[in-house]
């Protein structure tokens, strides 16, 4: 399975032109989309509007129900596959590397939108009026993306992206009022339990969540979450916990006032050097080096 750490790797793999921004990519599709049929994961979110005539989009080993569907949402490090896509009309895809959200409120907010989880493997079906709203927001992003960047560019772009997500939340709520549970429920519950553990402040009181703790919260045997996550995402439960920690650490390292040790303790690490080793293993640079670059 291919894993893309950067958007440039994704573009090169699929034969797209290089992205204008290393952490944000906009792609327009005209009737067909050049896609590879192999499964992949990446360190980015994808928001797509693609009214499919034929082809297949798979998310978490489950085919998206794309009948008359328009919008698709994929989160970092979840298995996805797009094959032989032919569209009824023009579409678009927005790829947002998770690092692009660091230091912005959307870093936390985007995790609350459940349609990025496996449970929402039904595409969002838009009415013509709803579709026009989404296209207008996309064009606003496209205009700003192609302008000369300045100190306001990122906030403006993320503001429009957040508006798309909020509208999608409204539209999905209308669509899924009577939706039954779908496959992937446990994986989604794992992510939600992990998020709530940190947001409730339990991490500072109880320390890092263990796989045993997560399994107990989900009323499962200790090994089952890891086996399921490994099968569906290619990563074990402890790897998912570590990736969540690193994502939160990147966000916190944008704060000039907090030291690396303080951040480590706030994330539940009793040993800051262990935090630094884990961060460097996953990111490639130490927390201090990352902090220095992010604040310049």
Automatic annotation (TrEMBL):
GO function term, MF aspect, one: DNA-binding transcription factor activity
Pfam families the UniProt entry points to: HTH_18
InterPro entries in UniProt: Homeodomain-like_sf (IPR009057), HTH_AraC (IPR018060), Tscrpt_reg_AraC-type_HTH (IPR020449)
Alphabetical UniProt keywords: DNA-binding, Transcription, Transcription regulation
Domain HTH araC/xylS-type positions: 192-293
Transcription regulation as UniProt keyword: yes
Record-given protein name: AraC family transcriptional regulator
Species whose genome carries this gene: Larkinella rosea
